[in-house]
Design a protein that fits this description.
With 418 residues, the chain is mainly alpha-helical. Helix content is 39%, strand content 7%. The chain has a domain of 260 residues: Rossmann fold.
Length: 418
């Protein structure tokens, strides 16, 4: 397996990645743009775009912002509402694997910024039915989350005739360099299907044998092109107009608004996915079993590019976290929720292992290669000098001592002084 000489990414990255003559990946090369782009000019360009969508008569919202109890939600709302003075509608798809911390983060987000909010909660019976199917067909427990998070904002945009949706950063640009920041790529149905949804649209899940009907997938169906065209819906990414630095942005949100963080099981990043039981636990372990690397590689590569880690430090973090098993509590919680035996579950996952990186010998799976084996490869890029630290802040839980012991389907949505 070929690995980038600067970051930690392998050539089998599912989003697609290429290497230049120096062995440096396309993601690193596009990331270099962050240090040469005139971000003040990009900020002016963003303002010009936003000004076109302001409702001068105050009869509708200026834009839609998809949010959750983690990731970049606080930062995006802060920038759009408080810096650019837009009037957004916040929308959220309920992933149903919610932690209490994520529920609190979302409640405080709604309270602090005082924005109107719309959430979609699909019947748990339907979500479990779909998830059983995507585990069998795609080895994914997260398809419904990705489908819901990327389609519900578009459905609301069409329904309420709000043409502008504002997203955070585009994975195809920030991770693998599929696009330049200057391309100003916007959200498309094609990218969503091919990359976010692993090639499966909602309609593709309809299956009589599995009991999935057209009614079951209604919440995940993308609006028709004519509906989108009629409203003029477009989805822009802030990462094309603001120098994206997830760690720095989260720390600003901790300082300004008390965003809650937490240690994660299979990675060092304590900021991004504190709202979900599974994302940095079972979901990430599945990613490792499929592709031979996990979220720690994504996040260490990001920090190497931002000059907060050396490549060697990144490799050490992979060594520390890559082979950690999902917690027994998390695995049991999910399997009980789904209604599937552990043996059957991992059988479906094993069927989707990438043969370029995994081989079964004498009944056991063997990882054929890893970035750990490429620390001293010839030509490893020494050009990036570490300029900042990579310590993550672990915050208190706002004085609450409740245990994270079960999924919270719906929790308190607004916070007061008590």
């Amino acid at each position: 397996m070929r690995y980038c000489k600067r970051c930690l990414y392998p050539e089998n990255h599912p989003l697609g990645i290429v290497f230049d003559d120096q062995g440096v990946c396309s993601g690193c090369r596009i990331h270099d743009e962050k240090d040469i782009i005139d971000w003040k000019e990009r900020g002016k360009k963003l303002r010009e775009i936003l000004n076109k969508f302001r409702n001068k008569d105050n009869k509708n919202y200026d834009c839609i912002i998809p949010v959750s109890g983690a990731r970049d939600s606080y930062f995006i709302v802060h920038i759009i509402k408080n810096v650019y003075k837009m009037h957004p509608l916040l929308v959220s798809y309920n992933k149903q694997y919610n932690t209490k911390r994520g529920i609190r983060n979302l409640a405080y987000l709604r309270t602090i910024f005082g924005c109107d909010f719309n959430m979609l909660t699909v019947s748990p019976i339907t979500v479990k039915k779909i998830t059983r199917y995507t585990v069998k067909k795609l080895a994914s427990i997260y398809w419904h989350c990705l489908a819901g998070q990327t389609v519900f904002p578009v459905q609301i945009a069409v329904r309420l005739k709000i043409p502008l949706i504002i997203w955070g950063v585009h994975q195809g640009c920030d991770q693998v360099g599929m696009f330049s920041h200057l391309d100003e790529v916007e959200m498309t149905r094609k990218y969503r299907k091919n990359h976010d949804l692993m090639g499966f649209e909602a309609e593709d899940l309809i299956d009589g044998k599995e009991g999935i009907t057209e009614n079951d997938v209604q919440a995940f169906k993308y609006p028709h092109d004519k509906e989108i065209e009629k409203v003029g819906v477009r989805g822009i990414y802030l990462g094309n107009y603001i120098r994206w630095d997830s760690k720095k942005q989260h720390e600003l949100m901790i300082k300004l608004y008390g965003y809650e963080t937490a240690e994660q099981r299979r990675t060092f990043d304590a900021y991004n996915d504190v709202d979900c039981f599974n994302y940095s636990d079972l979901h990430d372990y599945i990613k490792f079993l499929k592709w031979g690397y996990g979220k720690v590689t994504d996040q260490a590569s990001r920090e190497i590019r931002l000059k907060k880690l050396t490549r060697q430090e990144g490799v050490e973090l992979v060594k520390k976290y890559q082979n950690i098993l999902p917690s027994e509590k998390s695995l049991k919680l999910f399997l009980d929720w789904l209604g599937m035996a552990e043996k059957d579950f991992f059988k479906y996952i094993d069927e989707k292992r990438d043969p370029r990186i995994w081989k079964k010998e004498k009944g056991k799976w063997k990882l054929l290669d890893s970035i750990i084996d490429h620390v001293n490869d010839q030509g490893v890029d020494k050009g990036l000098k570490k300029k900042e630290n990579c310590k993550f802040i672990i915050t208190s839980a706002r004085g609450l001592k409740s245990k994270e012991d079960k999924y919270v389907l719906i929790g308190r949505g607004w916070s007061d002084k008590n």
